[in-house]
Amino acid sequence: MIELPQHSPRWPEQPRGFDLFSLPGVRHLIRWRYARLIFQLPLLLLAVMALLDGFLGQQLAPRNVATTSIWLHYRGLVVLVLALFGNAFCAACPLMLTRGLSKRLDAILPRKFPWPTFLKNKVFVTLLMVGYFYTYEVFNLWASPWLSAWLIIGYFSAALMVDTLFPAGTFCKYVCPLGNFNFVFATASPTQLTATDPDICSNCKEKPCLHGRESYSDTSAAKGDAAFIPLSSITHANGAGYFPGCETNLMVPTITSNMDCTYCFNCVRACPYDNVALRTRALGYEWVRQPWRKGRVSVMVLGILLTFWGLLNAFAMIKPYYAFATFLAETLHTQSEAIILALIIAAVTALGFGLTLLVALAADRLGGLKSTPREALMRWGYIMLPLGFGFWGAHYLFHFLTGALSIVPVVQNFFAQQPLLVAFNIDPNWRLSRVVPMKMLFPIGAAVVSGYALLSLYVSLKITLRDFGRRGALALWPPLIFITAFALLSIWILSQPMEMRGTIFGPTY
Amino acid sequence: MKYLLLLLSLSALLLGCKPPQNNADTDASRVKLELAEKATNGPATVRVYLLNEDNSATEGAKVTVTGMMNHAGMEPVIADAAQTSAGVYETKDFAFTMAGDWIIEADAEMPDGSKATAELPVTVPSN
User: pTM for this structure?
Assistant: First the structure.
């Protein structure tokens, strides 16, 4: 018999929309201990195919599984899924399948090391992310199946190493650039994990959603990995054994943001009361509630920088960029792409952050608040997130809609090259590429950018109404001007004819 | 399962020590590829020269020319090349759709059923 405490903490507000787990069979599936594996295995198989094709196959980016699956399909699908559902790619992440191997390595090492306190923020992952963007541009990863395959190896190795040396969840929360991109823009997602009945959480002593639980018919079977809760006490029992809790240290009734939530659904499986819901929420729900205001400056900075890096990532594919890069190269008397790119990325980073701070401070001052730069940033930084997601979404969607169907001939080509299948004479249909007519690409992109710009404006309005009272009308001007300029710039970039990289600094092959 | 994956990964690692040579099936002695004029953004004529194994000009082959960009997901340009003289085939409907780095591939199916292919890297300058 579990003794329940007699206190009732006040839990923060959570969405009360439709519970997707209430759909027939969904809750039962998700609470099954191997549910996550169903989603991870296909991606693992794809990763293996990408490795094989990247190392052994035709070294042409548009014909190789490694380049096509990573730079086209993953990126396109991730923004679609984030916009329409949530962080499904972290849920299905095959990197976590190294967990079995890392457990074996645990036996060799004396103990896990604590992740350094000064790195328990997003600073390290921000640096990794800028390094990743830089490497992507300098080494033209998008054009090289071989390098793309090495990237996969690097990712799996990093996940294994960090998972072996440090506590579970460290890689996801503090290291993984892909995951943290997903975390930032999962703030746009229309779903969120919540407590079905917060009062049950109030009376829950062990908090297994966070710490995990062990459940067996008999106490003697318990290994001491987590609090023991007998099987007979589990609501809708989902089997015996150890059920880990949240590895990124989120406790379900306190979740107010999708930041750091991998949608692994450990909490769903671990909760002995089956008290976790996946609820729908309105667009912008999280941004207007500003869940990062308490000490998560690095999170905000990451979100802001991702917004401006998104602009640069697309801008670097159009003619004005090449003109500017050529000008810079001539001015600095260098033909080194590495130097030019480093300078441009540094400038965009500084300019983007500086501009955001300027807008935030201007808004606060006009609204009559004498806030510190940090306070202003943490109030207004949220308006950057819909802008960033809108532009990343429009850009990735452009490429995805241009070439998504190419996965068919690419996979056909992969199998056609296998010695055992040569006899089948597989002839890939390379004409398969576009999903929509070319003339629809710009309108779709412009619509996405405009829609999220309007959402950013809505968030700005909510902030002014909440924090400024009558002077809100004045405070709104700087964000309004910025959002309008950002949207116009985004649409202009999308309207420019694309040019493939390599035209200035020599071919990329 | 995990040991199999580990073995697979280690094998891939060894095999990935240097990138494989491209164009493994290219038959440079039988197929030659060139642009009829300087590469510019827009319509272009791709000329394909085909030779039989005895170095005589190949007549009546089916030749397809594909223009690909060095980025996954960009739509390829595919055009058939018609014979214009002995062993010479030219495209009519081929066009570069943007500036940048392209790889043009010619796939020829000879009258005797044999196949040959060749690639030509091209940089299309900005206008």
Answer: 0.91
